[in-house]
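In the current project phase, work has continued on tokenised descriptions of protein folds. One protein thus recorded appears below exactly as we store it.

——
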Amino acid sequence: MMELDQIDRKILRVLATDGRISNTGLAEQVGLSPSACLRRVQELERRRVISGYKAVINPQAIGIGFIAYVAVGLSVHTRDAQAAFEQAMAAAPEVRECHNITGMVEYILRVEVSDLTAYKHFHTEVLGTLPHVSAITSYVVMASPKDDRA
């Protein structure tokens, strides 16, 4: 694990907010020369502290009008059952996130689709056909007053 100092943490905060900021702008905000700032960013990238940069996309602009978090319980708790479920979720374009969790169920999914009809299809024809899925609980997103994912 890489030791991060205050300047590294400041660089990460700025980049998490604005991944497209120029090196000069970043250097000004963190109090470094542009060359020193670039070296630090490159080192953070080399050590995989920064693992990539992404565009934040407006879901409505691409036809996503329905988002749900889905808790999924499995009836079998073997490595093979989990691997099969995870492969199925990796192949499902509707699933934007899949997390193996602790608690009453094994997985929580973030599902993004166009509308309720498309979600019903995913629920019935994808999740509902998988072996070992024993429980599906949907939590429909009504609003996202805070969403720091990028």
Notes: The helical segments are 6-17, 23-30, 34-46, 79-91, 116-126. The CA atoms of residues 67 and 112 lie 5 Å apart. Residues 6-46 form a domain with the Arc Repressor Mutant, subunit A fold (CATH 1.10.10.10). The radius of gyration is 20 Å.
